[in-house]
Design goal:
The protein is built from three helices and nine strands. The protein is an alpha+beta fold. A hairpin with a 5-residue loop joins strand 2 and strand 3.
């Protein structure tokens, strides 16, 4: 289980998909991409979907995601995405009252119970008190992370300069 914080955009793309029976059917699918702007999100989803789509397509929606962090699963069976709202509980030192702040996450899991397990796995390592306020399955098909291209093909030298000169 790993988590990644970034600027995420939810995108919807409409195209003609070849079904298992060989027939083509118009579908609209939702994907999440890692991008800094709307135009970068459009470019990212176009590049990622180019492999799967032959023919015309239309990007019907791009909007900033309500979550900033995604919990990715390494298990092959975890092929669904769940939106989780967690309420973090803090104590106001002045008034001695409980304060709750809500944060939304996207969690990859195979089932609702699996999503709860993954949330507990990630959040269990923290000292923060929280409750799962809501957990619902989304229509998201996949999440595409941004992978920066290396500017040059030289190998990176991670040895500090003071150690390089000692040789």
């Amino acid at each position: 289980m790993r988590s990644r914080t970034s600027s995420w955009f939810e995108t919807k793309i409409r195209y003609r998909k070849t079904m298992e029976d060989g027939m083509e059917k118009p579908v609209t699918e939702q994907y999440v991409v890692d991008a800094l702007s709307f135009s970068e999100a459009e470019t990212a989803i176009t590049e990622e979907m180019a492999v799967y789509i032959s023919g015309e397509y239309k990007i019907t929606d791009i909007k900033p995601a309500a979550y900033g962090e995604i919990f990715f699963s390494d298990a092959d069976k975890d092929d669904r995405w769940f939106k989780a709202k967690l309420q973090f509980i803090t104590l106001d030192e002045k008034t001695q009252k409980e304060k709750r702040s809500t944060t939304t996450y996207l969690v990859q899991a195979g089932s609702l119970q699996g999503a709860v397990k993954h949330i507990e796995e990630v959040m269990g390592g923290t000292m923060i008190d929280y409750v799962i306020a809501s957990l619902q399955e989304t229509q998201i098909m996949d999440v595409y992370e941004h992978h920066a291209q290396k500017k040059n093909s030289e190998e990176r030298n991670d040895v500090p300069e003071y150690e390089q000169n000692a040789e």
